[in-house]
Amino acid sequence: MTAGTESGDPGVPIVCDACETTSRVPLDAVADAIERHNEQLHNGDDIATVDPDIADQIADLVATDLGLLE
Ligand SMILES: [Zn+2]
């Protein structure tokens, strides 16, 4: 039995005010999931987003992970 990823990545909550939904997706799929949701459901409007409560933490994680702080 392998349980390699349990400590690192519980998933990132994405919230959409228009749909009143929250869904969790893996950190490396967040940008994709948001883009796809907004394109398919909101004509590309930027409505769904990472939960603001943890957006700062995620920004840190993502920036560290992917080097997006530039
Ligand atoms: Zn939506």
From TrEMBL:
<dbReference type="Pfam" id="PF26476">
    <property type="entry name" value="DUF8149"/>
</dbReference>
<protein>
    <recommendedName>
        <fullName>DUF8149 domain-containing protein</fullName>
    </recommendedName>
</protein>
<dbReference type="InterPro" id="IPR058462">
    <property type="entry name" value="DUF8149"/>
</dbReference>
<feature type="domain" description="DUF8149">
    <location>
        <begin position="6"/>
        <end position="70"/>
    </location>
</feature>
